[in-house]
Design goal:
2 copies of one chain form a homodimer. The first copy, chain A, has about 325 residues and is α/β, with parallel strands linked by helices. In chain A, about 50% of the residues lie in helices and about 15% in strands. Chain A has a 5-stranded parallel sheet with strand order 2-1-3-4-5, with helices on both faces. The longest helix of chain A is centred in the last third of the chain and has 24 residues. At the A-B interface, helix 2, helix 3, helix 9 and helix 10 of A face helix 2, helix 3, helix 9 and helix 10 of B.
């Protein structure tokens, strides 16, 4: 991470160290909400402090009664001006909670609303290890290390510094696969995604942001466990599924869904995070890091669709085009 | 509720009274998971004890670190033999948590796995007020009344006894609308549902269980708040939405989504829970009770689709047909 980020993170963690935290809320919308999924998953596994994840206005209107002075509320907005997320940060801060935001835009409304801000970089020129998810992971592992100091969390911090090479190598290894996926699936009006555990957020953002928002392709991010309790009846020879196999505790759930889907559909594509070469990341942390790599890899699948459909990922018909 | 149910509920509540509860987990799959959505919503609003909702195997493989002797774990399976839910109940009980299950089948595996069981009735011959959701509500309001005794929770218990009339009247009032919906939407290959807050679970079960499982129609239960952060770009003149307007705190989120969807799609159907005549239910509880009525009303929309598509709701191609 860069010098600003290191300082911002340090300030936020110092503030956390000085507080008693009894619950954690992650609040954001869309793609920013998706990156919180693995963070909440990691918290569930590593600490007995309960954590929960809400979309902005569900949090604002619901206003959980447990929100208060011993809450940590982490919010994220790329532009820093997502109204629901700004409002959530204000509400949380007024309730006495410790508020930390992540944003691409220091000085934005969100940045002003939160007590502590952590900036991230973005785009082809920037380092993936300084983008939103890795900065969030540093906050989460830093928090865990305060709650229950462990060398594992220190190793996690170090591994995040080596992320650029891991992501670049695995993107390079899957570049042609992503392009071929685009050619093969370009005529599909609907593509389901499926995953669970640490990788569910990747399926969520691929469905909602890449397929629906950026490609106008119908979708649903099906939870691999829920698949067998309703959604699997939709499976047929011509129904496309993009299944992301996790690398951790819930992998067998994804494998079961994959085995079934492959039996009855000829249109199943798999992104197996166990195939990622992540040797720089300690083995006991590879599952946690898998979504960070999967995000970069799947972006190439979206690039493939965009290219072969002649529909750039930057096109919108409503977003940024009108008030709503 | 019937005599057995009253006794079962009393035993479960007595056990809760004797324990210190610091967190609550609701665990189930598919349609049973959907009925837990408003229960978790009510807990968020009424108590500062954190609660969370998981599908069976996500809970089992994740095994939140906060699960322990001061946890209350509520599970539900209609058949009582959903393997993931039975396993979740066992895991929770082994961890020392207080386990309460709901099931149509007393004596089932689930029933045996849980420390306490609450039975419910089902089907055309039975009273809706004795079915799964109302029994769950009795458990939740009973729990809340133990944590923080209030006449509101006692009124809730009483109102649940008057539910049969409320549901029957509102079903009668919407019977022809549901049938007309089926005629109008029978050719649609995809139907999105949308809602939030107390009614999100109704959208979830309509999408996953009624449309996908029982009608093989593509779907996604979009959260009204998330709609504007990706999914809304899929909106077009011919894209069908079934929007369930809640009656409570998150209603304006649903209204905003409705206003946008109607502007760009000619295929928007609304189920407005504010139109339900719920005069037997105290006004401050009507929002909480809205999903119980909406469930019955929406079943008629599914009946309408089934009738006009010649595809009975009882048909399955995989479920109950093969091991998976």
């Amino acid at each position: 991470m860069n010098t600003n980020q290191a300082q911002e993170l340090q300030h936020a963690l110092e503030a956390i160290r000085q507080r008693t935290i009894t619950n954690i809320y992650f609040v954001a919308c869309g793609g920013s909400k998706a990156i919180f999924e693995p963070a909440q998953y990691i918290c569930d596994l590593e600490t007995d402090i309960p954590s929960a994840l809400y979309t902005g206005n569900e949090f604002n209107y619901r206003m959980p009664k447990a929100l208060g002075k011993t809450s940590l509320v982490v919010t994220c907005s790329h532009s820093g001006n997502t109204p629901e997320t700004v409002e959530a940060t204000r509400i949380a801060r007024e309730a006495g909670a410790l508020t930390v935001c992540l944003s691409f835009k220091p000085g934005s409304e969100l940045w002003e609303a939160a007590e502590y801000g952590i900036s991230y970089t973005w785009g082809p020129e920037s380092k993936p290890s300084e983008s939103n998810s890795p900065m969030l992971y540093r906050l989460v592992f830093g928090l865990l290390n305060i709650l229950d100091p462990q060398e594992k969390y220190q190793r996690a911090m170090e591994a995040l510094e080596n992320l650029d090479g891991v992501i670049a190598r695995n993107k390079a290894a899957t570049l042609s696969t992503g392009m071929a996926y685009g050619a093969d699936y370009k005529r599909e009006p609907i593509i389901y995604t499926m995953s669970s555990g640490e990788c569910y957020g990747v399926a969520y953002s691929f469905s909602l942001c890449l397929l629906m928002e950026m490609q106008w392709i119908h979708s649903q991010p099906i939870h691999s466990g829920e698949y067998f309790h309703g959604p699997f009846e939709i499976t047929d020879y011509d129904v496309p599924f993009l299944i992301i196999l996790g690398r951790g505790k819930t992998r067998s759930m994804d494998e079961r869904a994959l085995a079934f889907a492959k039996k009855f559909s000829n249109r199943v594509e798999v992104v197996d995070t166990a195939d990622f070469d992540m040797h720089e990341v300690p083995e006991d942390l590879q599952a946690y890091f898998a979504p960070l790599v999967a995000g970069g890899v799947l972006r190439q699948y979206a690039d493939g669709l965009a290219h072969h459909r002649g529909h750039p990922l930057s096109v919108r018909r409503y977003m940024w085009q009108m008030p709503y």
